[in-house]
Amino acid sequence: MSKRIAGPEIERLIQLLAKVPGLGPRSARRAALHLIKKKEALLIPLGSAMQEAADKVRVCSTCGNVDTSDPCMICTDSRRERATLIVVEDVSDLWALERAGSMNVRYHVLGGRLSPLDGIGPDDLNIATLVSRVTEGDIKEVILAVNATVEGQTTAHYITDQLAGLDVRITRLAHGVPVGGELDYLDEGTLAAALRARTSF
């Protein structure tokens, strides 16, 4: 049995930090110690920011993004193209695409991917609301920006079946060699996808 080295408040802080993705017990202890040492500059403002986020952040009822308003800022932005909708698995994917800044469109967050082994079926994802948005709106293209995993591709096929018969073009992200990537370091699946999706030079 390990000895307790701090009071229950500090132990609770460490335990909660350890639940953050990317932080294990050791990293959580270091982060907690750093926050405590910088109490005025970090710990107190962080606690305040987290409480404010807990009070004000909500899930957008239109697209599934997180924001302090519902509908979110992306959905209410009139400068965004209305005819194209990018479908992503999670909010983190939406943020990644926004950082890339290559398209000024709207999004739809599924909230995960189909995974029968984990008990995640169509009713657990925002697929019905996606079909409603496409049916009722003026969307001409749906871009499936799901991960290139078995579950991601299963989800993409299911969505394609659900949108069949609607007047909408369905596309997906190209899979292949990343910018700056060296062939020797890529897995066989990525290389095969890159060959299938080859373009004119």
TrEMBL record:
PROSITE patterns in the cross-refs: TOPRIM
GO MF annotation list: DNA binding; zinc ion binding
Claim: tRNA processing is one of the keywords in the record: no
Matches recorded under Gene3D superfamilies: 3.40.1360.10, 6.10.250.240, RecR Domain 1
Pfam family, one: Toprim_4
Acetylation as UniProt keyword: no
Signal peptide coordinates: none
Domain Toprim residues, every copy: 83-178
Keywords: DNA damage, DNA recombination, DNA repair, Metal-binding, Zinc, Zinc-finger
One Gene Ontology term from the biological process aspect of the record: DNA repair
UniProt-listed InterPro entries: DNA_Rcmb_RecR (IPR000093), Rcmb_RecR (IPR023627), Rcmb_RecR_Znf (IPR015967), TOPRIM_dom (IPR006171), TOPRIM_RecR (IPR034137)
Zinc finger regions, C4-type: 60-75
SUPFAM superfamilies: Recombination protein RecR
Highest taxon in the source lineage: Bacteria
Family in the record: Belongs to the RecR family.
NCBIfam families: recR
Function: May play a role in DNA repair. It seems to be involved in an RecBC-independent recombinational process of DNA repair. It may act with RecF and RecO.
Protein's name according to its UniProt entry: Recombination protein RecR
Native species: Phyllobacterium brassicacearum
Highest classification ranks of the organism: Bacteria, Pseudomonadati, Pseudomonadota, Alphaproteobacteria, Hyphomicrobiales
Gene that this sequence comes from: recR
